[in-house]
Amino acid sequence: MTARINPSILTADFANLEHELDRIATADLVHVDIMDNHFVPNLTFGQRMVESLQRVSPLPLDVHLMIDDPDRWAPGYAEVGAFSVTFHAEAAADPVAIARRLRQIGARAGIAVKPGTDIRPYLELLPEFDQVLVMTVEPGFGGQSFMESTMPKLGLLREAVSASGLDVWLQVDGGITEQTITIAAEAGADTFVAGSSVYNVGEPASQIAALRAAAAA
Ligand code: DX5
Ligand code: ZN
Fold first, then answer.
1. Core-most of 81, 96, 199, 210, by most CB within 10 Å?
2. Which positions are annotated as binding a divalent metal cation (predicted)?
């Protein structure tokens, strides 16, 4: 299984984002965290920022919406050119309708679950999605510790994806380091979001290479 490494720019220097994107050009996608200070107790940026990033990014944008009412707001992120748009199950009134709209616009559709959210009710919806994000920390902040207690969800997802024959990417986000990436890969993840371990430890390019190697080990 090929591991995808998606650095999160949440930990990057917001005043120099074009430069920060260039530093991660050897990654697979750029993870862009949208927070609204309602769904999570933190605030980042919105659709116009994604539109601007899209123009200068060497990599496709993987947008993670940590916002209320994705039914209303998610399609706008696809419209400005996000490669994938992932919204939270806990915040969505009609997840299938959102996913269909995202795909219709031309983006990959993703659904995310917080650490305490049961994944089982969503397994039957897998055909509607291109990726599933299992949060491995409580969403809202970078730099938190990986919660190994979330790993059984990946096992269930990997089993369901294999049984279905679908090509659904299984993503983890939060506390991913050279150590924890191995645990998540073994549990069934194939797409890894990493913020602090890419931007706060040495050079991003060598960190990306190290994470890739650890995921494959
Ligand atoms: C947290 C965000 C993450 C965050 C991960 O709510 O969704 O994408 O950037 O940061 P680290 O890798 O530092 O845990
Ligand atoms: Zn994220």
1. 199
2. 31, 33, 64, 173
